Every structure is written in structure tokens, then in C-alpha cells.
Amino acid sequence: xxxxxxxxxxxxxxxxxxxxxxxxxxxxxxxxxxxxxxxxxxxxxxxxxxxxxxxxxxxxxxxxxxxxxxxxxxxxxxxxxxxxxxxxxxxxxxxxxxxxxxxxxxxxxxxxxxxxxxxxxxxxxxxxxxxxxxxxxxxxxxxxxxxxxxxxxxxxxxxxxxxxxxxxxxxxxxxxxxxxxxxxxxxxxxxxxxxxxxxxxxxxxxxxxxxxxxxxxxxxxxxxxxxxxxxxxxxxxxxxxxxxxxxxxxxxxxxxxxxxxxxxxxxxxxxxxxxxxxxxxxxxxxxxxxxxxxxxxxxxxxxxxxxxxxxxxxxxxxxxxxxxxxxxxxxxxxxxxxxxxxxxxxxxxxxxxxxxxxxxxx
Length: 362
Prior knowledge:
The protein has two domains: 9-149, CATH 3.30.1330.10; 161-326, PurM-like C-terminal domain (Phosphoribosyl-aminoimidazole Synthetase, Chain A, domain 2), CATH 3.90.650.10. The protein contains eleven helices and 13 strands. By secondary structure, the protein is an alpha+beta fold. The protein is globular, with a radius of gyration of 20 Å. The strands form two sheets. The protein has a seven-stranded mixed sheet, sandwiched between helices. A six-stranded mixed sheet has the order 1-2-3-6-4-5, with helices on one face. Helix 2 (62-78) runs parallel beside helix 3.
């Protein structure tokens, strides 16, 4: 098991996969490591569903924190190609969460759900001792539609082209830059910091997925979360039983990403990138998909090809799954630096300040 973050494939295959309850014929796509969603057949109707933690960082402010939490919950089901329709959400809130903060949080969830025509169908809300940020519950999102419209995670076929939206390290850049902005100011220009913090609202692949799947013959989609672009591409290849041959030069790199990753000393290509969508597309439909994404203001490029075989080749070199995402360790390292800086300032002036990074207590 990984020290932090999602379990690796070996752990999943040994402990999780053999123990999945009843074997039902109506489960047409079940759990697999690195696969974003499952599918149930309900009397001829497809129900795609995905479950994730409710991830809330108060240090972002509760409106931004709620926006991010909501889009994390919807992102995995959106890569099914079906529009999200329903959400079940469990909130196990820390005792210190104030009612006004909850109001802001929940009204933002409601606003985002209405905008995407998603109904919150059921859930649970409570405040409990021992519950701490950022993991304060869980949620299951559903998308209801036709089976033939589902974009399966194992659908990539040799000859398909591979499209990447937004580029690497979107989430790592956005969260780290917002969380540790004052530390960055010691070495990074204001302009670069602004570019990096602007990546926050790129951290949703929902619009990317729905736009692409409506535009052309998309055969597979995957959200580049833990392990980043490299990890996501590796998982896409493994899910489809194919190989991927990728060049990084065409892939867009968003403003602020390179400088932020240099400052935090992380490899952008293996760093968590919620919001970056990886797609395989039949070659005859690539232009239509790219044009549709461009019309929505979503940067995207053709980065390579699905090939016979297995594994991932990047810039001519075989790449394995990174297994450990540098984001988690880096966050804890810089949270420690922020705490030490604040402690030093408090000892110097006798005052006290909020500790930057406190939203990631574990």
C-alpha cells in the first residue's frame, strides 16, 4: 500500500479485487485499478457511477473548497461520456465547522449542481468528533443514459489518436500555489504566482469530457489524477490492453505550471492533475474533437497514437507507472515550512497568525 494517496495495483489486486460481494449480471463494468467508474444495467438503461472522498480545504475559502469538492465528485463519472445526473453525498463534518461556513459550502454545491442539471438525490450530514479536514465524507455520482453512448475505459484501439487537454500538473500547481502563495513570493514573481493560482478553476474535466464525447468518435477517456499525465496514460493503456506512443512536445503546458513545479521541486508529468483529460479518438474524428474543445476554450492537442502491444512509450522511452505522486509529500513538507515560518514570526512579534496549509491535517 502506498504511504499516502490511492492504493497501488498490487494492493488492489490482492485485497480489494477478490472481495467484491455478489457477482451480478447487471454489473456490466465493475471495479478495476485505475478505472474511473462502473456501469450497471437497469432494464436496458445504463447507469454509470463513481465514488470519491469529499475533499474540503478550508484554507481555500469555503466557496472555492466546495467548487473543487463538487467537481472531484463528478469528474470520474463524466469520463463515461454520459452527462452526470444524480449525486449522493455523505458529510462527516469536523466539530469546528461553523454554520455560516457550512451555508457557504452547501450553497456552492447547490449552485454547481443546478448549473450541470444534477440532482442531489440522497445523503447524510452530521458533525462528529475525530473528523478532520480535508477528507470529510464521500459521495457517489451517477449518470443515466444509453449503453451505446457510454465511453468505456477499455475502449482504446490501435490506430486511435491520443488527445490531452490542459497539460500536466494542473491540480498540483493550483492547490500548492494557492496554499503556499506567501512562501512562493520569496522566490517567484507576482506574475508567475498569478498564473499558477489561476490553474485552480481548470481543475475539472467535466466540461472537457462532455464536449469531446459529443463531438466525435471518442473510444476511451481518463482523468489524470494521482500519478499525473504519465500515470493516467499508463492506466489507459493497461485498461485497453494496448500500447500508447506519446510525444510530450505537442501537449499544452498551462501558464504558471513550469515555474510552480520548479519552485516546489516536483516533476509535472507525474504530479496530480485533476482537470486534465486523456482521450483516445478514432483518427477520422480527431479534428472535430479538437475544434469542439477549442470552441469551449479548452486547450488540447493530439499527442500520439494507440499501438499494438502494451505499456507506455513517452518521447521514445518506455515509462512505468510512477506509483507515488509527489504532491502529497510536497504538501506536507511545505505545510511544515509554513508552520515554522509562522512560529518564528510569532516568537518575534508576540502575535499569532493562522497557519498556512492547515487545511490538509490528516
